[in-house]
Amino acid sequence: MHKYGTTSEHLGKIAVAFRKHANRNPRAVMKDKPLTLEQHQQSRMIADPFRLFDCCMENDGACAVVITTEERAQDLARAKQRARVEIVATVQGAPKGYSFGSFTNANIPDEIYATGGTEQMANRLWNNADLKPLDVDVAQIYDHFTGSVLMQLEDFGFCQRGEGGDFIDSGALHWDGGSLPTNTSGGSLSEAYMHGLNHVLEGARSLWGESCCPVEDARVCLVTSAAGVPSSAILLRGH
Question: Angle at Cα 31 formed by Cα 28 and Cα 34, nearest 5°?
Fold first, then answer.
């Protein structure tokens, strides 16, 4: 915020977009609770600059992912008339000397202090997959806090460093017309906090065409883990 002029309203627009998606999702904890930017701005401060609706929920629940061979997936796809979802590439790690990242303010090089610490990892992911940010049709970005979403949008190259606020202002995250529909189930902020595994499930649903916020002709989905700590990410492709 100090370096680039990011505002609380930018963060609020992330929370509002994801709540809008959750309102279409019958599985979402917040399915019946709309959220406006005004409500976000009036909510109590938890840890400046994060207000109540900038923070993920605490809830009980369960979800699961089944991974199998390509051959078996093809058989299941034919039997269920459902496209198979391929794991194109995965990556995990943190920058050298990152320690515990921005949550402890320890051992962070100046050049990445105002980032999510995932840019190096993101570059490896794109190289391993032979894909680029423009190839992504839908994203499921780990949203334990709204700020981590904004920083990962920059880290993964969807906008330039410091331009995350403008990118959010453009409406890019909305499923109905945004350039990068994101957290189409509501994410950890409004569907459920399942430590990111529900993001993987929503990635598959998006590529199957079964999301409550469907993205037409979606073929490639990015799923990320947390910013500000050693992290991971995965690229999925529907067939």
Answer: 135
Contact 16, 35 (CB under 8 A): yes
Q: Tokens for 57?
A: 């929920």
DSSP letter assigned to residue 44: P
233: closest CA among 199, 187, 183?
199
Q: Kindly report whether the global pTM for this prediction surpasses the value 0.90.
A: yes
pLDDT per residue rounded down to tens, the chain (239 residues): 999 999 999 999 999 999 999 999 999 999 999 999 999 999 999 999 999 999 999 999 999 998 999 888 888 877 777 888 999 999 999 887 776 656 666 677 778 888 999 999 999 999 999 999 999 999 999 999 999 999 999 999 999 999 999 999 999 999 999 999 999 999 999 999 999 999 999 999 999 999 999 999 999 999 999 998 889 999 999 98
Task: Name 137's Cβ contacts closer than 8 Å, sequence gap at least 6.
Answer: 181, 206, 215, 217, 218, 219, 220, 221
Domains of the chain are: 8-238 (3.40.47.10)
State yes or no: is 142 an active-site residue. Answer: yes
Whether 4 is catalytic is no
C-beta of residue 101 within 8 angstroms of C-beta of residue 226: no
| Active-site residue, from 4, 98, 113, 193 | 193
Alpha carbon 141 to its chain centroid, in Å, reads 1
Residue in 4, 98, 113, 142 annotated catalytic:
142
How far lies 175's CA from each of 105, 136, 149, in Å? Answer: 34, 13, 16
